[in-house]
Fold:
Amino acid sequence: MQQLEELYERDKNRPSVVMWSVGNEPRSQKPQASSYFRQIADKMRTLESRRPITLVLSVEPEQDVAGQFFDVTCFNRYYSWYHDTGHLELITYQLINEATLWRNKYQKPVLMTEYGADTVSGLHSVDSLTGLNRIHRLSCT
Structure:
């Protein structure tokens, strides 16, 4: 609660703050997330009544229990990276499908807040990246 107060006091007069995000990718599928994030949302609303409040989600819509307390549903997703690796033809369908699921679940505006990655498709483990770095070093010498 103190961190929320500090965040608000620090940034309340910044014109670039169009909404308040009170978390990023929490374990919002856990049963205790409901009461916890209800308290967080209530606290933020006591500090700010004009701007929307959000929580950036990463669990599947069916699993989430926290998004109900916020004004805007935000989610992070990396289609064709963690699963369906390299199948770029699925991205449009997956995005529309998930955004629709979030909209139907909470009847609130939906934003995708994080997407994509600076990586080579299919290579997102430390071992893979180490191998790429080794290849890069060899090709540069």
In short: Residues 131-141 have pLDDT under 50 and may be disordered.
